[in-house]
């Protein structure tokens, strides 16, 4: 995607079990002396696409005074874990060695960019089962309601502006009392209060761990086990890299639970209507990942093939396909292959420009020109089919189109988008949370049914200053992804959300737009 729309977080968890769960394999042979914590920073590198603001890990080591201990810092995974300074990096790995660990890489949809917001969160307590840490991926759509409800009671105070603190409070509350809490019961109870996306990796100072996927299954969560080695990760690619072969997704409402060093899987909530975020396949997830058994790469290629089936421009020798690097490559290549056109690198991306997504809109445009270099040698005099995975705000895409025409000297620019128009915000952890910031709603006609009309497309193309524009229609989305339609969240392309809080926030987003408010709807 030419603009940086970012996802909230990535979560990882590893455990060297006391007793083998099944036969061992390549992954388990790579573990030295049962120390799995050392492997977490490497996993977080594979989840870096999900967040670059901060990273951290908590490890469990019963022979250490600090049985649970947490290291975290702001920056990319490499920055936080001092990977460019081998001695310092090795020192961190040695200090936080352990039989079990959870890790986190953060992007903020709410809260600030400082270490207090970095995860995992840890809560010290003298009682071992009340001393815990956790890492969270998602966004509670009813965060403000939960916060207001707690604050309405006497003598409560929150220090951070984030739903993670609400989760910390909710977990602590459910671990109160003199009897060790049942962790399946804790998750069952939480999900009666929580509305939205909340995948959680939890660990306590008794060495208990759970990894849970919320009942809607909005965000992905993969698990794998070989012999005594258990792993969980927001994306399957991090487990594949460790050598795991039999990787599966946790089912919505399911948790992997480790107690007394033994692993079992439990259902903590029914999931009659899962709603997996389609955007995970279209843009967010690593192209090497699989979500619920469906390959991200094949989903993107499927969208490109469908765009090719819809193509109505006359094609000739001067036509080329330029995928916007890097996430649109699979769609662009499939589009080009189906139409017999060359797919070429007409845009070179500078991967070292940095974290442009934290820049305000005024500088997004400038960042596009520093991030992409159009190549006149490839583009000059050509009719360019620019394939993009999605358009959210459009600021950078319009600037990119201008660059292709002026610096690249392209003759025509036809934009093909491997996603339907984004007409509504996301309240479940993707950073597009107000109506006003979105491009497509300005052109949406009454009675819009997910397939933009010719008139709508012409107006949008003219606003982007391109020769033509085509989007993937909503009705073809599920087939492209190879996922059952009724199990997808399509809130941002239909305006209809899979949870009560989502639909309430949508009404508020409309009201906020009418009143000219620009803050995030869920804050
Ligand atoms: S609203 Fe859109 S981006 Fe948000 S979870 Fe649903 S499909 Fe994903």
What would you note in describing this structure?
The chain is of the alpha+beta class and 523 residues long. The protein folds into two domains: 9-271, 4-Layer Sandwich (Glutamine Phosphoribosylpyrophosphate, subunit 1, domain 1), CATH 3.60.20; 294-514, Rossmann fold, CATH 3.40.50.2020. The chain contains 18 helices and 23 strands. Strands 3-2-4-1-10-9-11 form a seven-stranded antiparallel beta sheet. The protein has a six-stranded antiparallel beta sheet with strand order 5-6-7-8-12-13, covered by helices on one side. The chain has a four-stranded parallel beta sheet with strand order 17-20-21-22, sandwiched between helices. A hairpin with a 2-residue loop joins strand 9 (222-226) and strand 10. Mean pLDDT is 91; it is low at 355-362.
């Amino acid at each position: 995607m030419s603009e940086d729309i970012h996802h909230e977080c990535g979560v990882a968890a590893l455990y060297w079990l006391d007793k083998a769960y099944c036969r061992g394999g390549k992954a388990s042979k790579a573990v030295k002396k049962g120390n799995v914590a050392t492997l977490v920073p490497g996993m977080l590198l594979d989840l870096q696409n999900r967040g670059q603001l901060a990273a951290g890990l908590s490890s469990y080591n019963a022979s250490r005074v600090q049985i649970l201990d947490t290291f975290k810092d702001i920056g990319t995974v490499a920055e936080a874990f001092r990977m460019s300074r081998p001695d310092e990096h090795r020192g961190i790995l040695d200090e936080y060695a352990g039989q079990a660990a959870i890790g986190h890489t953060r992007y903020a949809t709410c809260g600030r960019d400082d270490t207090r917001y970095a995860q995992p969160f840890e809560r010290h307590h003298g009682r071992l089962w009340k001393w815990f840490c956790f890492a969270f991926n998602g966004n509670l759509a009813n965060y403000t309601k939960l916060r207001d409800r707690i604050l309405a009671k006497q003598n409560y105070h929150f220090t951070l502006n984030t739903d993670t603190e609400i989760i910390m409070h909710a977990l602590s509350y459910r671990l109160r009392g003199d009897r060790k809490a049942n962790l399946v019961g804790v998750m069952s109870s939480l999900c009666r209060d929580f509305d939205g996306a909340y995948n959680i990796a939890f660990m306590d100072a008794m060495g208990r761990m759970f990894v849970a996927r919320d009942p809607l299954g909005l965000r992905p969560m993969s698990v794998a086990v070989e012999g005594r080695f258990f792993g969980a990760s927001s994306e399957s690619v991090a487990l594949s890299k460790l050598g795991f072969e039999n990787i599966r997704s946790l089912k919505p409402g399911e948790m992997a639970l480790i107690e007394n060093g033994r692993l079992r899987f439990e259902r903590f909530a029914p999931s009659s209507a899962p709603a997996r975020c389609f955007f995970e396949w279209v843009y967010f997830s690593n192209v090497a990942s699989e979500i619920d058994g469906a390959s991200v790469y094949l989903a993107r290629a499927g969208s490109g093939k469908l765009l090719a089936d819809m193509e109505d421009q006359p094609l000739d020798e001067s036509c080329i396909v330029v995928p916007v690097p890097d996430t649109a490559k699979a769609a662009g290549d499939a589009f080009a292959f189906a139409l017999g056109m060359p797919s070429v690198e007409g845009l070179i991306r500078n991967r070292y420009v940095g974290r442009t997504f934290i820049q305000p809109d005024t500088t997004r445009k400038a960042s596009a020109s520093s991030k992409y270099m159009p190549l006149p040698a490839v583009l000059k005099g050509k009719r360019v089919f620019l394939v993009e995975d999605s358009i959210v705000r459009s600021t950078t895409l319009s600037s990119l189109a201008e660059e292709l025409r002026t610096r690249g000297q392209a003759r025509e620019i036809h934009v093909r988008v491997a996603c339907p128009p984004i007409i509504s915000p996301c309240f479940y952890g993707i950073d597009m949370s107000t109506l006003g910031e979105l491009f497509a709603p300005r052109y949406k006609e009454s009675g819009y049914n997910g397939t933009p009309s010719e008139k709508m497309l012409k107006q949008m193309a003219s606003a982007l200053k391109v020769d033509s524009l085509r989007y993937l229609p909503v009705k073809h989305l599920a087939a492209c992804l190879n996922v059952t339609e009724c199990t997808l969240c399509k809130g941002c392309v239909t305006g209809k959300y899979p949870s009560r809080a989502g639909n309430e926030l949508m009404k508020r987003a409309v009201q906020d737009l009418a009143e000219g408010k620009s803050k995030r709807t869920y804050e």
